[in-house]
Amino acid sequence: MTGKPAVLNIAELFDEGCVYRVPIYQRAYAWGADEIKTLLDDVRRADGQYYLGSLVVARCGSERNRTVYEVIDGQQRLTTLYLLMAALCHDDDDQAAAALDAWHMRLEYECRAESYGALLQQLRKSGAPDQPEDVGAQDGPSDQETMCRPLLDGYQIIRQYLEDRQELEDRQDFEDPERRIDLEKLRTNVSIVRDELPSGTDLNRYFEVMNTRGVQLRPQDVVKARLMSAVSSPTDRETIGRIWDVCSDMDHYMQCLATPDERTRWFSEGWTSAPPADWTRLVGEAAPDNDGGDDGSAKLSKSFEDVLQEALSEEPPQAEQQAQSGAHSDDETERYRSVISFPAFLMHVLRIYSGDEDDASGDVKPTSLDDAELLRVFDDKVAKIFPKTSENSEDSGDSDDSASAEDNAKRFAAALLRCRFLFDNYIVKTHMDSAVSSDATEWTLKCCRKNKSKKERSYYLANAFSDEVQQELIMIQSMFQVTETGNNHKKALYAMLQWLWAKEAVDESAFLQHIREYARGRLEEMLRLKGTPTEGRRWRIREAVNQGVGTEHFIFNYLNYALWELLHHADDSPQGQDMSAAGIFGTDELPAVASEVRTRWNEYAEQTEHSGEGAQTLDCRRFRFRYRNSVEHFSPQHPLSGGDAPPNVNDFGNLCLLTVRENSRRNNLDAMEKIRHFNVAQQSLKFQFMVGQAQKETTWGEQQIKDQTELWIRLLDALSDASHVR
Does the pTM of the predicted model rise above 0.85? Predict the structure, then answer.
């Protein structure tokens, strides 16, 4: 790229007098309903500044004092924004009129210049709100109408989306603060990153490389190329490329992808040590001389486009990587699914690299974890990797800046490798089993170790922690993973990686206690208890949990984690279990409410064992965290059998989490009928508690809901702050 990319909000993009021309070697507009609605949902839900990704362009001159850019990547997104602006700018209000007057940007398609051109111009001028089909007909023959159909369909999808949102807004009972797309919000709060290629780039070759194997240029490809182009030595460039390749495959352990030499240099002889911060050790003593040759020509940094071409066209396929690394083909049987994508993982690395910390006061805004902002954050936090050039600086001969560019590129690559090692060794994963549905996920916490016997394979997988702590860490980490399901909102994962990053050696007990303390702080936040006096805590908790389907899912999941801690060793050593369970309260002894929970569970479990045929058995040992993301009313809001729901139907004692599939099939059944239709022992512990009381008392209604609500309020009070345990 020519320098730091330009970050433009939509107003700046559309008000600027530029022409964006989609070259003939690119395909026509091809987005359908799914892609369009995803973009519209992103815009609608944007909170504050939102970045839609990148637009890669090449400057190709000017026409009538307008700068002309060829669109190399991002044309589908740009065209959709054009259609959205056309739909919004023709509302009958002053805001729309002003936006239309300021709209000077033009969009052209070389491959369909006549048909697309007339349609795009007409949409911009009038919006054609009633009969958009007629716009295509102006081009004459029916084959041109057919050519315009993707644009017309896209425009209609956008119009229908906006009309549906308006209809929802007009409903008196509809509550959604981000309910529709506002023109002013779109123009000022939504931005795109415009990356400009250097002059002289072979655009046909560039686009060909960029679409190798049919894969569009991704932001992470751009980041990789920028890192590699910032270093002068071929050896350093190769090392950054190898680190990137090994780290980017999130569903294999790094040791299975690294070469034997890399394994020893990066992870020590037994593959158990975090990678060194020293770049020389990462490169290796056996590597070629960093001078790269007698003539010194290899010392010069490669251009960005050359590195990008190499990175995209020469990356070996997965099978070849495994062959290079010495990993056996049966590694496929031990693959695991990462809880986060690589672009989102890079955002965590960027935040750690930049030294950001979450600021409870809100005075300092930490680096975003949203991978839609990858390029912007990378340029903001690692900006010094770009050496000054005559194109972007008057002082193009500053060698100190060039040295800083190489140093920062290496530091970031080293940070990426270390963060990925910490992730592999200490963060929970799921088994890679396509036959298992997401609501039956099995969690694992393994680390890759060198097999010294070498009788079968070069590695084996071992538990990451001692037996005593292993299950505890799997349970609390999986609790966070099923709560923070979004790829870009894993605050707990960042809190764990940040803690691990700061440690020379990881003490398993300290790691578990750190996560517990973090979880307790999150619970206090969800219950809105900060600054609440002692006498008002339970009132505040009641207000937070009695929200029906609006109750925070984290509260359900954390309560189930606490119940598991209290119950799963009920038949083992009471003293050892009490010490372990007391840790979740931040005390040395269990509070009275914890003993009451245990007593009631034992009563319910004993009752079900002696209730004869048809009674459901309770089983805390089989409990696992699943992706249960639908709030269920045990006593239904609208009973299938008729009659009225209990007046406290939305209270916490009547609520639990189920999978969407389970909830949709049985949500209107009466509570006692639900018990007969569920495999209770596979459900959450809160659900099992409700079943236990209902079976013991042979009914479920207002009094039972009240009883359990009060019990959980007392337990949540004790869990959220040890100083308030009574």
Answer: no
